[in-house]
Design the sequence.
């Protein structure tokens, strides 16, 4: 039998390898959550978070101002080109970030901070899996789909992953009275270390600093 016409494509092989790695990580997600705590294994485990994330996932509308969001896309889209080759994917990600950070009735969430978290956590790779099993763009812990009655594969959905991540980050910002570094430490499960918060804040202020100039961010 002749080989598949796709089998020699390096891009296809890399995608298949990443998909296999992701499936293995998701298959082991629940046992991993029960292992002894490590730096990020304890992240996002606060009991009150379930209601917060569940409420965020139930809302599917975009509440952004059309003019501000259009200007914002124009400013931010070129910065994403180094990470995402597909223009439609860049615009979809920016739309999701803008909508979630400008959610009506919710506490302000700086969109530049969200982009910095995406940058540091996954480099905008929705297939990213950490050593503790955190998955996707915002490295959401793998127990969330089961708690919310979702399928595990939804963790690699751009919209679902960012929505969950933003809900968790917003909750920690409110709990820590807008102390960004402490909120980031709780998000990552590394409250006693400044390394992760400093990396995110540096990325926020040096690269994504223009993202908060419009709207309510």
Sequence:
């Amino acid at each position: 039998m002749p080989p598949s016409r796709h089998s020699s494509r390096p891009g296809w092989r890399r995608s298949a390898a990443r998909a296999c790695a992701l499936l293995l990580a998701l298959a082991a997600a629940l046992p991993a959550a029960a292992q002894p705590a490590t730096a990020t294994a304890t992240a996002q485990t606060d009991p009150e978070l379930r209601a917060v994330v569940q409420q965020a996932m139930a809302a599917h509308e975009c509440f952004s101002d059309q003019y501000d969001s259009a200007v914002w896309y124009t400013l931010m889209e070129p910065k994403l080109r180094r990470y995402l080759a597909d223009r439609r994917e860049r615009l979809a990600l920016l739309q999701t970030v803008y909508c979630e950070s400008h959610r009506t009735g919710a506490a302000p969430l700086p969109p530049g901070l969200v982009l910095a978290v995406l940058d540091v956590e996954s480099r905008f790779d929705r297939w990213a899996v950490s050593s503790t099993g955190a998955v996707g763009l915002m490295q959401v812990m793998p127990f969330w789909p089961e708690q919310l009655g979702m399928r595990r594969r939804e963790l690699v959905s751009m919209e679902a992953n960012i929505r969950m991540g933003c809900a968790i980050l917003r909750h920690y910002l409110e709990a820590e009275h807008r102390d960004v570094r402490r909120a980031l430490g709780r998000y990552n499960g590394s409250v006693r270390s400044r390394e992760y918060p400093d990396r995110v804040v540096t990325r926020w202020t040096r690269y994504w600093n223009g993202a908060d100039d419009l709207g309510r961010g």
Notes: The chain has one domain: 10-33+48-212. The radius of gyration is 17 Å.
